[in-house]
Amino acid sequence: MTLVQSKFAKWSKQYIAGEWVEGTSDKTVKNVNPYSGKLLVEMKASSEDDLDRAYRTAEKAGKEWAKTPLATRAQVMYKAVAQLDERKDEVIELLIAESGSTRIKAEREWAAARRVVEESASFPYRMKGEIIGSDIPGKENRVVREPKGVIGMIGPWNFPLHLCLRSVAPALALGNGVVIKPASDTPITAGLLIADIFEKAGLPKGVLSVVSGSGSEIGDAFVKHPTPKLVSFTGSTEVGRGIGKLAGEHLKDVALELGGNNAMIVLDDADLDRAVEAAVFGKFFHQGQICMALNRIIIDESIYDAFTEKFVATVKKLPYGDPSLKETVVGPLIHEKEVERLLEVVEKAQQAGAKLQYGGKAEGNVLQPTVLSEVKPDSDAAQNELFGPVALLIRAKDEQDAIRIMNNSDYGLSGSVFTTNLERGYDVAQQMETGMIHVNDQSVNDEAHVMFGGEKASGVGRFGGEWAIDKFTRTRWISIQKPYREFF
User: Fold this and answer.
1) Which residue positions in the chain have pLDDT lower than 70?
2) Do 433 and 467 fall within a single domain?
3) In the annotation, is 277 catalytic?
4) 164 vs 191: CA distance, rounded Å
């Protein structure tokens, strides 16, 4: 085991069955700062034996956890919120170092993570059953709502803390056991930090475990294991399809939040300054490495040139580089291979007729905020998720053409429309084939008490509020026959 930066030494072990232990795999997990390239910490990976122990312990401990008083579960959530408050600076520094978050993004992620845990504190009191009448004399039908059992959570690297807690906190609050497999690039903020927070918040040992390891060693086993009743995954559509297929073979429920090819429609009556400001944020927040980030900005041709001029002028002012600096807006991509991939996208888009307005160069893992205009709606760049700081400006003939371009995608996660006529905006929103649409806002929105989820290739299932309660619990029918029935 090699520890390069001593302040990360505490994160060199796995958290399995309530204990901080070394993984038993022969492989290791190397945690590298994507901006500096420095090794933060190296740990022994988890093996299938570690995974089996984590799941079986979560099953046993989870059954006892489900029996605890509602106030006990709620109190653990409130104490976890207090942990996030007390350790805000630590959380932000970890997000910057591990995932390449800018300080602006890290602070917003901390706030979103805190809010989802706070919302989850109310969930124990919101599990409601139902009594339904019967056609049979003397029968009472009770539909009871219970914890689902054990939840397997496969976490992402882009918003590691928030997107893991979006499943973990509701699942725990509702009485489930949980096992997290964090992204290999962010084992701390997508798993170990969460375990540490809940351990200090008083969660009983064994209810939560974290197993960090390669997908080739424990990926399939994580889904196939007989213990978890639901597997929650946030990540690429390609990987999500594989998880969904494997879970289906083993008759497991899934919550899949996958890729997006999100678009903003700018109608001919839009306030251009407001639309530009929103589009720049929606595209370049966290370097565009967000499932909800804007890929395509579709502009009515009557205002296309004016919008493009204002947009490019704004993007040219964006500070980029070191994510730890307060003023930085665009930081590093997670890997050098992502920089290479996006530079190739930019080059091919130009070959297909797009015009490079700004950017297109890289310094290490930092890709300049890049703007391409006159992008063809059917081009590869416009049809695939970019997941990086490259903005595509697309010309539309009119409102209906913009809607057609918007819907011409395999994805349907988020989107937005800008107009000074709110009812017109609502009408357009109703025609946009996405799970979430925002009028006079950009596409990156997430509120803990509101439904979150996509359509088409962007996922299966819903997160947030009442929808999370539905997802992480089960209902059962228990009938009571008071006077005995006559059967013959």
Assistant:
1) 1-6
2) no
3) no
4) 8
At 3 the pLDDT is: 42
Q: Which distant-in-sequence residues (6+ apart) come within 8 Å of 238 by Cβ? A: none
* Domain CATH code at residue 62: 3.40.605.10
Q: Report the C-alpha gap between 282 and 262 in whole angstroms.
A: 10
- Reduced to 3 states, what is the DSSP secondary structure of residue 301? coil
Measured CA to CA, the distance from residue 442 to residue 274 in angstroms comes to: 10
Residue 227 contacts residue 55 (beta carbons within 8 Å): yes
Does residue 422 sit in helix, strand or coil?
A: helix
Q: Which member of 257, 338, 385, 399 is catalytic?
A: 257
Q: Quick check: 295 and 385 in contact, CB under 8 A?
A: yes
CA torsion, ordered 375, 381, 387, 390, to nearest 10 deg: -30
* Entry pTM: 0.96
Total structural domains in the chain? 2
The owner of tokens 């920089």 is 339
Q: Which burial class, exposed, middle or buried, applies to 362 when counting CB atoms under 10 A from its CB (0-12, 13-18, 19+)?
A: middle
Cβ pair 248, 224 in contact under 8 A: no
- Could you read off the pLDDT of 461-472 as tens digits, one per residue? 999 999 999 999
**pLDDT given for residue 215 in this prediction:** 87
pLDDT value, residue 5: 54
Q: What is the pLDDT of residue 6?
A: 66
Neighbour-count burial for 94-123, b at 16+ CB within 10 Å, e otherwise = bbbbbbbbbbbbbbbbbebbbbbbbbbbeb
Report pLDDT digits (tens) over 36-79. 999 999 999 999 999 999 999 999 999 999 999 999 999 999 99
Q: What is the CATH number of the domain that holds 343?
A: 3.40.309.10
Rounded CA separation 213/48 (Å): 9
DSSP string, 170-209: HHHHTT-EEEEE--TT-TIIIIIHHHHHHHHTTPPTTSEE
- Determine contact, residues 105/285, Cβ cutoff 8 Å: yes
Residues 303 and 337 in one domain: yes
Count of residues in the chain: 488
Q: Tokens for 347?
A: 């080059």
How does pLDDT run across 252-284, given as a tens digit for each residue?
999 999 999 999 999 999 999 999 999 999 999
Q: What is the mean pLDDT of the chain?
A: 97
Asked whether residue 484 is assigned to any structural domain, the reply reads no
